[in-house]
Amino acid sequence: MPFRAGTRIHVSSYGMYGYALLCCETLREVTQMAVKFHRLATPTVSLSFREEDGEAVWTFDDVLDLGPDDALHRFLVEFQFGIHQTLARDMVGPDFKLSRLRARYPRPEHAALYGAYFGCPIEFDQPDNELRYRAALLDKPAAYRNSITVAMAAEVCERMLVEAKTASGLTRRVFNLLMERPGQFDDMEALARKLNTSSRTLRRHLTTQGTSYKEILDDVRCRLAKEYLRSTRMGVDDIASTLGFSDAANFRHAFRRWTHKSPSDFRR
Predict the structure, then answer these.
(1) What does DSSP assign to residue 23?
(2) Contact 147, 25 (CB under 8 A)
(3) Each residue of 147-175: b (16+ CB within 10 Å) or e?
(4) With bands split at pLDDT 50, 70 and 90, how would you rate the model's confidence at 166?
(5) Is the Cα dihedral 54, 60, 66, 70 positive or negative?
(6) Model's pTM, two decimal places?
(7) Could you tell me if 54 and 134 are in contact, meaning their C-beta atoms sit under 8 angstroms apart?
C-alpha cells in the first residue's frame, strides 16, 4: 500500500510547495527547496541531502523515534520512498532511475516488491534509510523551470512555514519562555523542566512540528535585535552582549544570515 500510494502523489498534490519545486531550474535547486520547505508536505518524516562518491543521497527517518523494528516506521519510510521516486520522475522525466535503496529495518516479507517498484539494488539492516541516484542528474535543466514563478512560490512557502511554526502551542510556549529572559536564554534542559517534560521529548515534539530549539532561539534573537536597532541607541557591541553573543562579529554574521543586511544597514 505505501508503494502504490506513493506512485499517486505527484508534485501537483503539494499546492504552492509543489509549484516551487516544479519551477526550479535544476534538480539541485529542487533539493535545496525540498530540504527547506519539506515540513509543509511531510511532517512525519525528516529528510536530509548530501553528495557522496558521485551519488546524490537522500536520507529519511520518522520524527517519532519509533525505531527500525516498528511497523509504522517502515510504513512511513516506504511511503516516502515511493513518493520521492514519483516526484523525481515528475521533475526530470519518466526515465529517472535510482542507483540504490537502503533501509534501516530488517528484510520484510514483501521484499520482492522493492525490485518491482524501484528496479535497483536493495539493502536492508543498514545504518540509514537512503535513496541514491547519479549526482550528474542534479544539474540537468528541469522541464518546467521558471525563475520568476519559483521566486514567488518560495516567498509564499516562507510565510506558510512561519505560520505553521508559530501556530503551534508548544512552539509558542517555548518562544514566550525565551522572550521572558533576553540575554539569559534557558537551554533545552531548563526549558524542558519548566514545561514538565524531558529534553528528549521536547526535542522530538519540536521536530514533529517542523522546528527546533535553535530555530526558535534564532527567531527570538532576530526579533529582539530588530527592536533594539529600531527603538534604541544601543551600539552593536551592546546588542550582541545583550543577546548572548560572544562578540559583535558573531552577532553581525548571524544578523546578516537572518535578514541579508548588516545591523548598520538595517538601522539606517
Answers:
(1) T
(2) yes
(3) eeebeebbeebeebbeebbeebeebeebb
(4) low
(5) negative
(6) 0.63
(7) yes
